[in-house]
Amino acid sequence: MTGYExxxxxxxxxxxxxxxxxxxxxxxxxxxxxxxxxxxxxxxxPGTLPVLNRNLVAYAVTLGLATNCQxxxxxxxxxxxxxxxxxxxxxxxxxxEDPICYGGSVEIETDDGVxxxxxxxxxxxxxxxxxxxxxDIDTLVDLNRAGVPLLEIVSEPxxxxxxxxxxxxxxxxxxLLYLDICDGNMxxxxxxxxxxVSVRKVGETRFGTKTEVKNLNSFRNVEKAIEYEIxxxxxxxxxxxxxxxxxxxxxxxxQQTKVMRSKEQAHDYRYFPxxxxxxxxxxxxWKEQLRAALPELGxxxxxxxxxxxxxxxxxxxxxxxxxxxxxxxxxxxxxxxxADAEAYKAVSNWIMTELLRIMxxxxxxxxxxxxxxxxxxxxxxxxxxxxxxxKTAKDIFPAMLETGKTADVIxxxxxxxxxxDTAAIKLLVDKVLADNPDNLAxxxxxxxxxxxxxxxxxxxxxxxxxxxxxxxxxxxxxxxxSDPQ
Amino acid sequence: MITYxxxxxxxxxxxxxxxxxxxxxxxxxxxRASLNAFLHVDADGATAAAAESDERFAAGLARPLxxxxxxxxxNINVAGMPLTCASRMLDGFRPLFDATVVERLRDAGAVIIGxxxxxxxxxxxxNETSAFGAVRNPVDESRVPGGSSGGSxxxxxDGMCHVALGSDTGGSIRQPAAFCGTYGLKPTYGRVSRYGLxxxxxxxxxxxxxxxxxxxxxxxxxxxxGHDPMDATSDPGAAGRALDVIASPHASPLRIGVLPRTAxxxxxxxxxxxxxxxxxxxxxxxxxxxxxxxxxxxxxxPTYFILATAEASSNLxxxxxxxxxxxxxxxxxxxMTTASKTAGFGAEVKRRIMLxxxxxxxxxxxxxxxxxxxxxxxxxxxxxxxxxxxxxxxxPTTPTTAFSLGERNADPxxxxxxxYFTVSANIAGIPALxxxxxxxxSGLPIxxxxxxxxxxxxxxxxxxxxxxx
Lengths: 485, 469
What we know:
Chain A is an alpha+beta fold. Chain A has 15 helices and 16 strands.
């Protein structure tokens, strides 16, 4: 590894959440029965013509603006010609010479700090159908996906490690989710990633021969496949060989890349301008409308969470990763009724420990986890105001989920309000000391670790309602004051 | 030939009926089966539609084209009728929808009588490339009717229908119209929706009209034009108003552009004589005759064949045996595509697909396709410049009258040069109209062509009316 650096660029395909397909009115619903979401147009019947879905353009421009791209005022579609059973027209409508967005960038946060990854281009295109070969009968073709709109996002070769590739992909996915234009589900294929990988000796300025690695259908696979490919290429060079320009496929089962096709077998796609569609025009008015509608994106929100709520980077990153969680967090904080860093952190802790756990177990969103932001805020404030202890809070959390009541109501109903009345606590402290002369003597003789025992006895005697902080300080005072026997 | 305007007034005064006219057309198709003009005749459908039209006439609810008998070139979708493009490739295919033009004609009361023979996938100039046999010229059955819309031209010329739809990619309406003695209009690109027309060369293809009179041409034009949201290249403008324009007085002075002698010297003498006679007729009607040089004539045909074949190679990719049409015996899925195309396409189609694939391929794109795109711009600019000075450009439609069957099959380039006067209008997207004007010594029809500025289709028809005898 040492002495080499890797040069990595990613090509990401994001399937868009438009209601209808790119060039016809068919729905884009995932998971429908095969060949149901089809019409003569997306089946490529003779005489049919494409008509551009305007939302596809709006989504492309939105992503372009969110990734600091230039937006081309006039761009065109091209045909990419190749034969495949699941490509109904024998060509894919895509953009080639003048993509709608170009020259952008995305920031990622690495262990070494913030790094900017350039975006070469973002272009619009249509998806193909699906061929199913692994059945005994024959090849089957499902054209539900044919014509579903995609954005292809091509990065600059700015990525240097598999980890950076992972972070970049994650950052882009988060942006797509924040913009609400893509599901970002790599397993279902709504987000796909190919990687161009080459290596060179450190200090070398020319690029080495690259390979393209395909079939990276999870975040883990992206990282592992790139890692594997880097090592493989270095080994080829170290053993005196030359890296061949090839398309590789990641075999997740064997955890290795294998050759899919060589340079000689590469397709000649015979791109030419799509004569059935006019130029795509994005005027300033439309562009500015789309810019004005951009939401605050993940990284900006994370930085704001750290500044405004005093959260650590770790907390902020986790909270903003899911827009719904971030929204929930802000709503809960607003419900606190006070600006208090400790309470903000407490809200974060509750979400990270309890709510994310429930969401994971029940595979649900945070709004379905059973606790409203107002409920959570009431719980946090009850602890903050010494109405209940942290332990009590943990105990009544399930009751909140079950009943939908606020913490305050449950505390009142169950009489859980903790006692902070020093006179009442003093009586209990004195009683515990009087009831345990032996332990008191041991304490006095140096067994100071019995302090916890005394505090526990007081809390127990109070039925759990005594404020532990006050108990602790009063017990300390009482023990220090009592005469040695 | 029969004209709709005449029949309509006869129907209105009770002298005949839609049913009677339709039956007469069906009989004519039967009697003249040797011409091979039709690939499918829908006698039942046409008879039923005619009966409905008669009811509408009786009820005083006749629509603009009520009872008009229309034949449709077999590369235009008509729901319920087979669609073959005169190819084995589409064996068994029936389209699920009406082309926009067909839908508009039906809504206006037209009777769709059937589908006409053509060159396979509209690739040809003689109608000899049809997988279902050549169409014959009604004047002389040893001669071609022209192509690719030969069946439609013959159907109108021989009285099998009032009007017919064709498609014109490089002259496929105008050349057979000239060879058969009908009017043949290729409208401005975008004025008639292409939705439902099987694409040959998408940037050049345009659906147009064969008719026995200018009036019928105009009446159909007004119905089939106008924006169609299903075709992104469709002009956003409203439907045509050709009937109004041809009936209104000419703006004067009218300026007719004519070609220099050198440009027509390759034409048959009878065509030159007819051309001169027509120019004289324009002059006597008060038109100024202005000789113009377009330039770039030598690149018209090469430019056309590069653009047309490039687009065709992509447009015909979808005929792969996967979803519809012919699926040949095969060993595996990739062989299925190869085997089906090999079995399904005829020689001319294969030739053009290969040519188009070549001009788009890596390393040749710049030398051919990109250069042809640049040439296209030059040709369009030349036309635009000319139309600043003249209202229409006048020239022969073809260098010869109908040639003999088989005469030009040996050499594809000679065949392609038949399109010399017609391809440039498609390259520039401008409207062009072939007007029947006399006959040669053998009685073969002669066609003369008017070309106009973009969107001046109605004006072109108005100018053509000066040539009506």
